[in-house]
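Example 3.2
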Amino acid sequence: MARVEWVKQRLDNWARWKSREKGNGLGFYSQAAFLRMAVDGGGYRDTSIPVDDVEAGKTDKAVQSLLGPHPHLHRTLELIYLEDTGVPECARRLCRAISTVHANLAAADLHIATYLRQLADDAELAAERAKKSFTT
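Structure, written as tokens:
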């Protein structure tokens, strides 16, 4: 089973967001972007990949939704994305085959994709209902 590319990208964003969360408790930058630039015009002091905080928050809810029904998928995501173990080390820690870790990642992608699509459908339905309530 193949990975879902857009979910992988969201999980990468989520991992960056979670790593920032450890630094200051919220997942947001602890310093404004303009303060990270060098004053002398010599470029940036550090390079940083931008994080979409809203997207990461939704992805976090999707990942947390795996805890109850699929804790093994949640743990796989934690090891791969938050602890940055890589697939072989993740397989070793979980006492699973590498192919099982790949299958777990693909299954987690599908669950997250379904969760996020349902979330979007619910938001669209709520917006539609709100729009009708103003027009009638």
